[in-house]
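Section 5.1 Outputs to date
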Amino acid sequence: MSKALLIMAHGSRSETANDEFRALVERVAEAAHASGQEYVAVIPCFLELAKPSLIEAIQQLEHQPVEAVQLYPLFFNKGKHVGRDIPAQIEEARERFPDLDIELLDYFGNSEGLAELVLSHIGRQGG
């Protein structure tokens, strides 16, 4: 099954911050390709304040052979956005694109190894 990966951030009024996120998603796409993970596309999207939205990101896939989309929320906590707003956007997307299998992945802050990653990042900064 051909699939795409959408990575969602909150979005910012600062275009510099949004561009930083887009660059991260590009690096994730390169790492996915290098490791043999088969995604037709890896695309950034935003919950609010920036483009593309989830719907707009899915529309970018319109002319590509995609049967399934995975949405990965790059959020630290299961607050209102992760618990309510993102699932609501997923439901809207499923209604608008009924032939597409849209899967909501677990949010970043719930990933194993996150504490070790934070500690490693701190350690690489000297001190």
